[in-house]
Design a protein that fits this description.
Residues 11-372 form the FAD-binding domain. One of its GO terms (molecular function) is monooxygenase activity. This is FAD-binding domain-containing protein. Keywords: FAD, Flavoprotein, Monooxygenase, Oxidoreductase. The chain is α/β, with parallel strands linked by helices. The chain has one domain: 3-Layer(bba) Sandwich (FAD/NAD(P)-binding domain). It is 30% helix and 23% strand. The protein has 11 helices and 18 strands. The chain has helices spanning 19-28, 56-64, 116-124, 173-178, 259-265, 271-279, 321-339, 350-388, 394-403, 408-411, 415-425; strands at residues 10-15, 34-39, 51-54, 85-89, 95-99, 112-115, 132-133, 138-144, 148-153, 158-161, 163-166, 184-197, 212-215, 220-226, 230-238, 255-257, 283-291, 304-306. The strands form 4 sheets. The chain has an 8-stranded mixed β-sheet with strand order 5-4-13-14-15-12-17-16, with helices on both faces. β13 and β14 (220-226) form a beta hairpin. α1 (19-28) runs parallel beside α7 (321-339). The longest helix is centred in the C-terminal third of the chain and has 39 residues, at 350-388. It is globular, with a radius of gyration of 22 Å. Bound molecules: flavin-adenine dinucleotide. Flavin-adenine dinucleotide is lined by residues 15-21, 39-42, 48-52, 116, 136-138, 167-171, 173, 308-310, 316, 321-322, 325.
Length: 440
């Protein structure tokens, strides 16, 4: 079968309208012969959440997609020094460390901070409303290598597609359909988060202009301006998750909390932090959950895969969840368009679809697994010290801060380069002067 008349669009069903799902939809819709349908469990896409950061990797990918309005200063905040994170001492307020950009040359790629709802809205503006189906909670999914996928929703409706992309976050229904035994674990960290208007903080003496993390003996405190004149503070406590009486065990995500908890926790801290907690009008709880281990595979029935938190619930560590989700979405798009270029005259075969999912997995899973390994080691170490009631000495704290977070490999990761390396490993990339990947 050849010729344009034989070509019917490839149907991609995306479950979840978060950062991952929307980015995937925007990317895939660039292909004239891919039809995208989004299914979202929420009844409306409203403003919830607090602050979210995008690193150079996620920002670069959104720029590649032409999403200037989702990365510029009208929606995001970049500190005047363009230092992504400054660490200060909890008591003295001295700068004791920082993370720096290592190989970032373009202003728009400097780490940016948003209210999550503003980033979400900026992406949503690029997705036609009529391809989004709300109140569609996925409850089961089946994938057949030859026939495609069948999705079942809580309202007892059914949908079919050629490919299923699970972008449904931490408690993914798609993941649950294919890997039912995944257990999410509370790390013991419960964040107290707030977002309010920057004007509330305007009169605080010596308030740093840049995003700042104050490190203390048993907890930290984060404060930053966000885009659109918003300001965020994040405090919290570490409990022993194995203790049945652990503080805040069982609180839910985005649950309203008493602001007194924040004020009492930071009462002995330096005057800037003290002033910040005093002007914070209200807080919400954000308990931290992650997957106990990484998934054995991301390819299900040769037709379904996962992106974003659904694939690698890492609990938001290193503020990289948003960028990872964006890069996953883009890697998926690169993989699909590799087997199904815009010039294709036939829909990809089941073998080609499987190949695309494998290319995606080979590009992203090792990166995500490395992150999960790092996160689990950190959670175990923290759990042991919290259980033992031991704290770092001041010198240890200063030494740790001086080293910084050592996460350039995450924040400056280049997903296109990683995809090309996958193709090279698989001997699918024919080097040309333009560096254009060859067809299979
Ligand atoms: C409402 C909300 C607020 C958030 N606020 C913050 C924040 O303030 N700071 C931060 O760092 N991170 C926040 N996160 C998490 C952050 O967005 C993700 O960690 C990261 O961006 C990865 O995005 P994701 O698209 O993989 O997952 P998510 O952003 O979690 O999106 C998943 C989407 O899938 C939908 N969904 C879930 N289950 C099903 C199902 N069975 N059927 C259909 N749809 C389903 C969810 O409603 C959601 O819209 C928030 C997530 C949500 C959903």
């Amino acid at each position: 079968m050849t010729g344009e008349s034989d070509l019917t669009p490839l149907q991609v069903a995306i479950v979840g309208c978060g950062i991952a799902g929307l980015t995937a939809a925007i990317a895939l819709r660039q292909h004239p012969m891919i039809n995208v349908t989004l299914y979202e469990k929420a009844a409306e896409l409203k403003e919830i959440g607090a602050s979210i950061a995008l690193g150079p990797n996620g920002l670069r990918t959104l720029q590649r997609l032409g999403l200037h309005s989702a990365i510029d200063d009208n929606v995001a905040f970049r500190g005047p020094s363009n230092i992504p994170m400054i660490y200060r001492h909890w008591k003295t307020n001295e700068v004791i460390g920082m993370d720096v950009h290592e190989n970032v040359n373009e202003y728009l790629h400097y780490t940016a901070r948003y209210h999550r709802a503003h980033l979400h809205q900026a992406l949503l503006e690029n997705v036609p409303r009529d391809i989004i189906h709300l109140k569609k909670k996925l409850v089961s999914a089946k994938a057949n290598p030859n026939d495609g996928v069948v999705l079942e929703f809580q309202d007892e409706t059914i949908a079919t597609a050629d490919i299923l992309l699970g972008a449904d976050g931490l408690r993914s229904g798609v993941r649950g359909a294919f890997v039912p035994d995944v257990v999410l674990k509370w790390s013991g960290w419960t964040a107290f988060r707030a977002v309010f208007d920057t004007s509330l903080a305007a009169s605080i003496p010596n308030l740093p202009e840049d995003s700042t993390h104050w490190w203390g003996p048993d907890t930290n405190f984060f404060a930053s301006r966000l885009g659109k004149n918003a300001f965020t503070v994040v405090g919290g406590i570490h409990s022993n998750p194995d203790d049945p009486d652990a503080a805040y065990k069982g609180v839910s995500w985005d649950q309203e909390a008493n602001v007194k908890l924040l004020r009492e926790k930071y009462t002995d801290w330096n005057p800037v932090v003290k002033s910040l907690v005093d002007i914070t009008p209200s807080i919400r709880f954000f308990p931290n959950f992650s997957c106990g281990s990484s998934l054995p595979t991301w390819v299900f029935g040769s037709r379904a895969t996962l992106i974003g938190d659904a694939a690698h619930a890492h609990g938001g560590a290193f503020a990289t969840g948003g960028s990872l989700a964006i890069d996953d979405a883009y890697a998926f798009y690169l993989s699909i368009t590799f087997v199904f270029p815009v010039t294709a005259t036939q829909k990809p075969s089941p073998t080609e679809i499987q190949k695309a999912l494998e290319l995606y997995e080979a590009t992203r899973k090792p990166h995500a697994d490395r992150l999960l390994k790092t996160v689990h080691a950190a959670i175990q170490a923290k759990r042991a010290t919290v259980a033992a009631g031991t704290f770092e000495t001041d010198q240890e704290l200063r030494e740790r801060a001086a080293k910084g977070s050592n996460t350039t490999w995450l924040h400056e990761h280049d997903v296109v380069k990683a995809f090309e390396e996958t193709l090279r490993r698989e001997r699918l990339l024919v080097e040309s002067s333009e560096g254009i990947p060859a067809k299979l």
